[in-house]
Amino acid sequence: MNRYVVYNFIMVSLLNLMLFVPSILFQYRYNGAVSSLITASLIGSLSGIVYVHAMSKFPGKGVPEILNERCPRWVSVPVLLFLALMWVSTSSITIDVFAILINRFFNPDANVFVILAVMCVICIYAASRSTLSMLFNIEMMLLLNVPLIFLLLMKAVGSNQMNWDAIRTASNYAQTMPKLAPVAAAAFIFTGYLNMSIYNRAMPPNYKFKRGLLLPVVGVGVLAISYFVPIGLHGVDGVSTYLYVWSATSDSLAMEYGFIERVLFVFLILYLNLTLVYTSSGWHQAMEMVKGCFPKYKPSIDEHPIPRRNYVIVSAFAIITILALYLLNEKHLIQLTSIWLIVRMFAEYGLVVWIVLLSRLRRESA
Amino acid sequence: MLHRITTLFAEAKDLNTHRIHNHEFTLEVAYIGSLVDESKVSDYILVPFTKEEQSFKYLVETNPSFKKIEDPARWADNLLRGFILLNLDNSIYTLDAARVIRNQTPIAEVESSVQGPQTALSEDLVDSINLIRSRYPSAELKIEEGTVGTVSLTRMLLLYDQQRVDPTVLANIRGRLKEVSLEIIGAVGELEKELSSPRRSLFPTMIITERPDRVARALSQGKITVMLQGSMFALVLPANFFDFMHAMEDKYESMWMTKFLISLRYLSILLTTTLPALYISVISYNPELFRVQLAFSIAGSRSAVPYPSFIEVFLMLFLIEALIEASARLPRYVGSTATTVGGLILGQAAQQAGLVSSIMIIVTSVVAISNFVIPIASMSYAIRFLKYPLIVLSIFFGVVGVAFGMFVYLTYLCQLRSFGKPYFRFLDNITKKQGDIGQVNAR
Known about the structure:
Shape of chain A: globular
Largest sheet of chain B: 5 strands, antiparallel
Number of domains of chain B: 3
CATH class of chain A: Mainly Alpha
CATH architecture of chain A: Up-down Bundle
Largest sheet of chain A: none
Oligomer: heterodimer
Helix content of chain A: over 70%
Number of helices of chain A: 15
Structural class of chain A: mainly alpha
Structural class of chain B: alpha+beta
Distance between the termini of chain B: 53 Å
Number of domains of chain A: 1
Number of strands of chain A: 0
Shape of chain B: elongated
Order of helices and strands of chain A: HHHHHHHHHHHHHHH
Number of helices of chain B: 16
Order of helices and strands of chain B: HEEHHEHEEHEEHHEHEEHHHHHHHHEE
Strand order of the largest sheet of chain B: 1-2-4-5-3
CATH topology of chain A: Amino acid/polyamine transporter I
Strand content of chain A: under 5%
């Protein structure tokens, strides 16, 4: 079931816009962003292919089971809790940012906490479903939204306002050495494969990942578009004046035919769907990680009716999310995000190396 | 025997009990006159018994239509189904002489088709089985009999192809049928509500159909069919969302046009659920969403309307729902009057009086018409409800609220299961070799 790996990959890579990835990259556009993009693409694709391959050595198992089997509990439980934090934090930042975006562009009079609360309730509902339902949900939302997002991106690329000269100027800075923060930001685009940590449970027993080449192709494509298109439309200097670069970029496009003229609205609605499904997927995985800490827990991918502890755990995540927006403003959020992206990157590659080693050990012992 | 039977039943005029004698035997006969074919009583029992051309006992023992029953507890049961009870030499026999009043060779009207088969299933199980067997002549077709309803004891048949059926689904439906505890089951729709597994599901998880060709095709796909005596509809399960978007006509007509029509149905669903909510959000929240010319013409068209947009929407939706309900319940002769009065005169007048905008009239009619595009009636009903929660969300959150609502609906659909099978998922070409997600670890 290659396509489910690809769905997760595409979902996370398209979602980078909500995590300030372009804004972080643009801060470094004169000193190392482009080379960081290249570095991140190499590391990201490689670890993606290796990780999915390693996970397929553990048929029907997620990371919690693997760690619980192979490590003592005092190792596995803190690690699982940290991984849960990793998923919760990215999802929660995303939904916080999107609540602010809705408040800014759609309902300026509404209270941002009310909007966030409703989004949280929706995500609680979606995230507490079974893993199988979650995968179907991801599939449906991507099939409905990604073609349209792709169309809009293509429209942006083909726009006659595009200044290719600016893009060339920006790409001339490729010789400067990569920096940690932009590498971490760009590497986020490639982290979709990490969702296999839980979703591997649902994969069929004889599953082998075949379309490995798709990961670098999709990743590099999305990375290039989300970095270079705003530069082409706003200019190398102008691009850093925006916090939500892509909202400004999509607002600079117009659809001449049809009911809706401003691309911004379509873009935001599509990304709203993507954000909701990403957040619920992130919370769902974090929930499974937390559930993996209970000693007697037996994983199941399709439970009906939904056990009560799903609701309890996910509601805790929602409360954290609302508190985060209450305590932090946007400036703090973007600082937190750029630091968190770095921490997260190291954790991610640590996990990849660990799982790959475990899968090797398993093969030798067998 | 006769004494016992008369004590079993409440005093009923149509309960016939006779004791007759010939040279050899004394025969006791009991039957319910209104349920049986009286000519069968005389042809099979009274005439041969009195003529005495051969020993009546020999006749009863050789003719396989007479069945011996041992258990006195089943007497009442048998009588009520239109069987005749005989007591001959202290052994009890039954003979099926039921006379069933039913519709004669009905024509498919709910799911009509232009060029497909025109007959519908019958209200009598025997006739229905005849129709299905002639379309699905397979030795593997298994028919199980049972009853549902503790008082109505409605006869029920469970049909499936024993080679193709999914055993987990079969076990699932058998278990659910055992749990049905209603007193009276009148139609398959009632049974469907009892069987569906969240009880208050928003969407039907079983197809109710009257078409034998749909049943036959479903059997060939390994699905299970439940039929009830006295209902000309069959219940086909498991079903997924996309089955409901399929008319049988799609199989019989030109391929390109049917593909187009199917996509039209999905578009219609989208319109009929979101349009009223979008109207509210565009008027009251985000007029900047549309291009300027359109926004102006919408605003201009409701310049005479004195109240907020959601009251307007509720007003018109109440009218249209009442109209649909009225034309469904009214006798056929009056029905057309109701639609003319409601649709033409009221709509036009409401707009001219400045109670609603002309755009709202268009929205209402689009909502009503696109709702009827859905081929299966139960799904059409389910979809009809979906617009109201969206309206509530759009009152509070505008366009974003509609997007929220649609997301929740999709999530709901994705988590729904029809007898353990996924209800709403994208079915790509899933091969056995590749395997499918969810084969392992499911509970």
